[in-house]
Amino acid sequence: MQIFSARYLLPIGAPAVESGALLVEDGRIRAVGPHADLAAAHPRAALVDFGAAVILPPLVNAHTHLELTGFPDWAAAAGAAPAEDFVDWVLELVRVRRTVDTAAVRAALAAGLKQGLRAGTGAVGDILTTLPAADAYAGTPTRGRVFAEVLGVDAERVAARLAEIVACLGIPPAPQLAWGLSPHSPYTLNAATLDQALALARRRHLPLAMHWAETAAEHEFLDKGAGPFATRLYPAVGWSGPPQPWGGGAANLASFPRGSLMIHGAQAGADEIASLAGAGHHVVLCPRSNSRFGATRAPVAAFRQAGVPLALGTDSLASSPTLSLWDELAFAREWFAGALAPADWLEIATAGGAAALGLGGRLGRLAPGLEASFQVVAVPVGAGAAVLAEALCAGGEHVVVQALYLGGENVLPLP
I need a surface site. Which of 53, 115, 128, 400 has the fewest CB within 10 A? Predict the structure, then answer.
């Protein structure tokens, strides 16, 4: 047995414990409470005292594209131009990505995993497009799920892609990572190809993640078959269309497997929010990415009122400046000023992400029976128990991660 203690312990969903501690045995939390109580009850347990620090659950990056971690360098080498709007950005992303080989993608993915761990991220919902780069996950202690991406409006090509994905399913990406499926978005699939993806998900019991309701242009395309997706994106990639777009509305959301991850949700309407809640879907917010393409803010208050579970993601370095969820939290707190309390944001970034990835019974909170997965951060300057959640949410790059334990083992520092 070991006792891990610090000035504060933040269980999530419960008040901070001053001079708090965890009792850990065989990689699991056996008890949570004041250090003095645990030490008295278990006098033979070894003590690890972190001093002026906070023990709290690891952050969960519920939506990211780690294979794009090298994008800033790739874009500079390819002479990428600044994007004027979302469609410009997509087209430039596609162009730059085609200049990069699998080895570079593999290296970028490995680097992204390490960046997340250093920033206190213990679990991810990662989107993988380059299937041959999947071996970059091998050996990572990161928990979570890898969503293999599929897109296209040609049924034969989509069937071939799904066959490639099926060939990967027999071996998990890493010991603590499972597979999922990511139909890319409503505007890169049609009714027929989405049905192909949904059929595979049901047959193989694969959780789903989809970019959804991200921009006003997406709504214009799905509702009217018009706008920049129709006039610029489809012609640029050689698609004719829009051929039977599936729409992405309330009725269609109900057809997704329960508990699917809908990424962004910035343009969600009242009927769609009700459908999300009824279907038990999760919305993963990526506010820094959304802010890059206009000032649209996801309706977080309406999501919460309807009971839609929320999680937080960084998206990729193609649209966000860092992969740190601490940075994402700081931005979300300011951008959605007053919409949610700091304690709510911390819960979204930990327990909310864990629930979205099917890890709610393992991590995301500090409670007896869960994995001994937690991070240790320095106490923010001047922060006491009453303002601890606010100080952590506002900390961003100033949050210093001293240790990250996953299953009872400290995975930091990394080489």
Answer: 400
N- to C-terminal Cα separation, the chain: 28
| C-beta of residue 126 within 8 angstroms of C-beta of residue 64 | yes
297: left (phi over 0), alpha (psi -120 to 50) or beta: beta
Range 209-222 burial, b when 16+ CB lie within 10 A, else e? bbbbbbbebbbbbb
Question: E strands along 174-285, which residues?
Answer: 177-183, 209-212, 261-264, 282-285
- Which residues is 378 bridged to in the sheet? 53
Domains of the chain and CATH, by start: 2-57+365-410 (2.30.40.10), 59-356 (3.20.20.140)
How far is residue 207's CA from residue 196's CA, in Å, rounded to a whole number? Answer: 15
Helices (H), 225-306: 228, 234-237, 250-253, 270-279, 287-292, 300-306
Residue 250 pLDDT: 55
Q: Which run of H or of E encompasses 77?
A: helix 71-77
The per-residue pLDDT for 248 is 56
Q: Are 154 and 120 in contact (CB under 8 A)?
A: no
**How is residue 123 written in tokens?**
């679990």
CB atoms within 10 A of CB 15: 12
Task: Tell me the per-residue pLDDT of 32-55, one tens digit each, with 9 for 90 and over.
Answer: 999 999 999 999 999 999 999 999
Give the predicted TM-score (pTM) of the model: 0.97
Q: Residue 78 has what DSSP assignment?
A: T
